[in-house]
Amino acid sequence: MLIKEILGKFILVLFLLLFLSGCWxxxxxxxxxxxxxxxxxxxxxxxxxxxxxxxxxxxxxxxxAQSGGSQEPPREIISFVADDxxxxxxxANSVIAKQITYxxxxxxxxxxxxxxxENFIRWxxxxxxxxxxxRDIKLLVTKEESATFFQNNKxxxxxxxxxxxEKILATGNEMGTIPESQLYQFFRITEADADLFLGIYGTxxxxxxxxxxxxxxxxTAGEFDFQGESNLTQFLGSAVFKEAMMIDSLxxxxxxxxxxxxxxxxxxxxxxxxxxxxxxxxRIAFRMENASPLKFDLKLTGGTPSIHVxxxxxxEVLSNHSMTGYQKDEEKRNKLEQSIEDNLNKEFNDxxxxxxxxxxxxxxxxxxxxxxxxxxxxxxxNFDWMETYSDMKIDVDVQVKLGKFGRQxxxxxxxxxxx
Amino acid sequence: MxxxxxxxxxxxxxxxxxxxxxxKVTDNTPTILFEYIKNAGWMAPIINGLIAIFPIYLxxxxxxxxxxxxxxxxxxxxxxxxxxxxxxxxxxxxxFGAVIVDTAIYTDIIGxxxxxxxxxxxxxxxxxxxxxxxxxxGFEQIGSVAWTVFPYLQVSLFFALIxxxxxxxxxxxxxxxxxxxxxxxxxxxLRLSLYADFLYLFLFYPYIxxxxxxxxxxxxxxxxxxxxxxxxxxxxxxxxxxKTIMQLNYPYHELIRTISLGFIINMEAFFLPFWLIATFxxxxxxxxxxxxxxxxxxxxxxxxxxxxxxxxxxxFLGMIPENPTFIIFDIKEKLxxxxxxxxxxxxxxxxxxxxxxxxxxxxxxxxIR
Lengths: 419, 369
Fold this sequence. Notes:
A: GMP Synthetase, Chain A, domain 3, 2 domains, five-stranded mixed beta sheet, about 30% helix, B: Amino acid/polyamine transporter I
């Protein structure tokens, strides 16, 4: 009796194994080619076609699993013209031996040219159709064609591409040089039709005719002039999307301000510089963070709508090239605080003005705050945030608190040394 | 079957009800609610829950007169053989329609979100095979399975929700009233049949340990379900915003593939098995309900033997529509609208008839059949 029961269960378990393997959808990892990024470019003269580029990662390269001596490259790139990036999978398989899969896809990369095209939206929505594509992948915009971008991108140390992209994007986010740029946010913002979406902006081409500007923070992708022996790729600043079309790009500083002014993002510690009030020749380096949450005062009904934003910032002064003695002099500290505050106030307000005048919408996610002021959707839609925004009276008030003055807070007086 | 007459307790009962109704939030029911009520869709379970108190209260009132009798016998007694047949037949048609539509939708979920290459008939067949097996084991077995798996399902759901709230934005819930207060109440009450399953619960009256257990269990289950449904729907809004969610077919499955836990990005592989188990239990109960009704209407005593044939029939009927995402969605929406009056009026009718027949006064003396 007992044996019969055990045998019965055993047979049942064996029978179950048949189904647990996943039926027709069973796939061996060994038999798959993992696309980790798809590039989409416009094809000249053909409006209904796109150029698809696949970046396929070799998961074995550089890992301890690699059997000794095999010199497989870490990646494979293939680029061709197709109707869309769904059907392109089969076409790629005429060259790539393993079956193409989007299971580990982490990025969609589009060329700026295509992102600025009004038809861009028709292709990007394919990502909601394919069942393997996750919604939290990143959207990147490259200055050049994405096919060129992939080929130029040769990281020296992080040779495995999935590792490289994950690291560089995470670091960039933390430093505030690039926005988060998740695909589902892109869809959400496009559908809500109120705010601007910020995508990651990158390039592998250096802008030949850059003039070193006064402020090294006011640069965007391609304008960072560096020498040495490293990868050519740079991710700097953001691509501004309005109604699913790229309209402009933001510099690092503007990207940072957009992050700082967004109440739903948690900014990290940003480094920046500002003119020294005691010697205009030099700039003071600082590290800033949000001291406390942003405060908003929205008056949307009755007269001109107005928004008053208070941005409490905690600043740490990290350089002191004018060698001013702040240690014992409260007046100097106050002057410094005042000057930083004025400077930041001007920068923030100028940027807000730019969004009002040039973009006629904002990348700060403020429409979500405004929604709280309305009780029904029809009221909200009649208010028409995007339309109203450009005429609003907006006032950003930065409140700076000075924190530490670096590890060693005092410096020798330059007059005393050079007397 | 006669031998299985151990009665089930309150834990199992509540678990069964929660799996029957609560699982709805993971298919396309929220989409239908969001589509008509927009971002106030999460209020619909609450509003409907409050309205549903009324019919459920009336039903319980009627059933307390007849100790230990199920809906079938009470209906036969109150309406007479002929009218009772018609009413129960309508209930069977609705239940059978619902189970076809729902299994087709769940098959579509599995087919479009997880197993894209497996033929539909295989997915459907295996789904119904497991559910039919579960249903033939009898109500008590389903109850104990429901209770055993219930904590795991609830924990996995809340785990998903915690991750969602971490990644979502609470501001998406505004403007809080959606299309306006009146619109919200109107559109939600039209879809009252969200809770129509409660009507079918009275079929199980004789299987429940005692009257107190049934009463307490039903009310507790209603409260839990309202909380479950609306909290989950609020979380959908937090993650997707209303414009997006109105376009998603299956928000739960989009949710579990959007959220990630640190370096683990493909979380759906973790949540899928739990959801599948809930699905199996749910359709086992549905199949069982259909078998009870069918058996009673057509005088088949050992109705458990009907289940395999019913399941087979469901697979073939459910396979008919070529394009489940559109046709079945449409049928489901209509079914949701049409069942609402049934759920509201039938209890009222039963109570009125019982009242006029003077059943309440003679409650203690009478003993039907």
